[in-house]
């Protein structure tokens, strides 16, 4: 592997490791790792600080997945194999941040940013699936798990690209794994709804 690719992957990991949820929380005088679910993602930030802070974290977490893949695709002209590695690295950086002792978020927003850069059509369909399942159930976690699982199937049919499909499959596994506690609560019926009925 070329040195430029290795350096790009390291840079992607460091960028994606920036814990925007934690940083934004601190700006509001709160440690989100000790509030609510303890997660640094947009959902917990929204619950503990507010919608504006949550929206900011959502956008920032998406961008740190989107930009490394987009820049690598359109300016560095990396091939699909390298792009899939960049996509995986970005989500791993978010989920296992070097700045958070290799802990982090659950990868949903960063994963969506990656999808937007790899395949806009796939990202659009995944967003629709997420919204549909969220509005139907009221659970952010269920919607995220369902959308993540479906992403690799959708990108396979939309792009017919083995590298993109593998990246989406691997990332869906990571996202589902990071939601293991949510899955247990969903099964037990103790998961908190974001939308109350």
Automatic annotation (TrEMBL):
UniProt-recorded name of the protein: Glycerol-3-phosphate acyltransferase
Pathways involved: Lipid metabolism; phospholipid metabolism
Compartment annotation: Cell inner membrane
GO molecular function: acyl-phosphate glycerol-3-phosphate acyltransferase activity
Pfam family, one: G3P_acyltransf
Membrane topology: Multi-pass membrane protein
Native source species: Persephonella marina (strain DSM 14350 / EX-H1)
Family of the protein in this entry: Belongs to the PlsY family.
Enzyme Commission designation: 2.3.1.275
Protein task: Catalyzes the transfer of an acyl group from acyl-phosphate (acyl-PO(4)) to glycerol-3-phosphate (G3P) to form lysophosphatidic acid (LPA). This enzyme utilizes acyl-phosphate as fatty acyl donor, but not acyl-CoA or acyl-ACP.
GO biological process, one term: phospholipid biosynthetic process
Subunit structure, interactors included: Probably interacts with PlsX.
GO cellular component: plasma membrane
Enzyme class: transferase
Recorded catalytic activity of this chain's protein: an acyl phosphate + sn-glycerol 3-phosphate = a 1-acyl-sn-glycero-3-phosphate + phosphate
Domain of life: Bacteria
Transmembrane feature ranges: 6-25, 82-102, 108-131, 138-157, 163-180
Keywords: Acyltransferase, Cell inner membrane, Cell membrane, Lipid biosynthesis, Lipid metabolism, Membrane, Phospholipid biosynthesis, Phospholipid metabolism, Transferase, Transmembrane, Transmembrane helix
Keyword Transmembrane helix in record: yes
């Amino acid at each position: 592997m070329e040195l430029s690719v290795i350096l790009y992957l390291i840079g992607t990991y460091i960028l994606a490791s920036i814990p925007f949820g934690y940083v934004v929380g601190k700006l509001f005088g709160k440690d989100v790792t000790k509030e609510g679910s303890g997660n640094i993602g947009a959902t917990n930030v929204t619950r503990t600080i507010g919608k504006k802070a949550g929206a900011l974290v959502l956008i920032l977490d998406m961008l740190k997945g989107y930009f490394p893949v987009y820049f690598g695709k359109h300016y560095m002209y990396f091939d699909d194999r390298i792009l899939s590695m960049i996509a995986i690295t970005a989500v791993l950086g978010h989920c296992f941040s070097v700045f958070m002792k290799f802990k982090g978020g659950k990868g949903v927003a960063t994963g969506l940013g990656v999808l937007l850069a790899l395949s806009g059509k796939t990202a659009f369909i995944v967003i629709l699936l997420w919204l549909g399942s969220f509005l139907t159930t009221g659970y952010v976690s269920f919607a995220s798990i369902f959308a993540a699982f479906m992403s690799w199937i959708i990108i396979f049919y939309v792009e017919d690209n083995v590298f993109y499909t593998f990246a989406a499959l691997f990332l869906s596994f990571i996202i589902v794994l990071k939601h293991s506690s949510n899955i247990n609560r969903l099964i037990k019926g103790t998961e908190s709804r974001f939308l109350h009925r």
